């Protein structure tokens, strides 16, 4: 199984840096997935949730409010203004869900995009 490096960076530092199987990103033109050996691209990221499938198959979700992503064959780097982990081993889920909702509501995106992202965050909370 091929893996790629995923790095998520905020103004406060790196919040995720690990090998992953795939990542789904909230692009400015809609969600898109990235797998290892993906063609090189740079894209704007909109308010939403980054869905990550780690090397061990466990899923992690990170809410973001805006940023951009640079993808190449070996590494995907997300530079975001704000991010909150929604799932994973080291999160206090209830607190993270509230922080994520607040982050998304403060984002400078359309109401439809924010509502969709908040809905996704709530779905993640219900599934855990």
TrEMBL record:
InterPro entries referenced in this protein's UniProt entry, alphabetically: ATP_synth_F1_dsu/esu (IPR001469), ATP_synth_F1_dsu/esu_N (IPR020546), ATPsynth_dsu/esu_N (IPR036771)
KW Glycoprotein (keyword) present: no
Assembly and binders: F-type ATPases have 2 components, CF(1) - the catalytic core - and CF(0) - the membrane proton channel. CF(1) has five subunits: alpha(3), beta(3), gamma(1), delta(1), epsilon(1). CF(0) has three main subunits: a, b and c.
Phosphoprotein recorded as keyword: no
Protein source organism: Sulfurovum indicum
All residue ranges annotated as the ATP synthase F1 complex delta/epsilon subunit N-terminal domain in the record: 4-83
GO terms for cellular component: endomembrane system; plasma membrane; proton-transporting ATP synthase complex
Endpoints of the signal sequence: none
Similarity annotation: Belongs to the ATPase epsilon chain family.
Name recorded for this polypeptide: ATP synthase epsilon chain
Keywords from the named record: ATP synthesis, Cell membrane, CF(1), Hydrogen ion transport, Ion transport, Membrane, Transport
Membrane topology: Peripheral membrane protein
MF GO annotations: ATP binding; proton-transporting ATP synthase activity, rotational mechanism
Job description of the protein: Produces ATP from ADP in the presence of a proton gradient across the membrane.
Compartment(s) where it occurs, according to its Swiss-Prot or TrEMBL record: Cell membrane; Endomembrane system
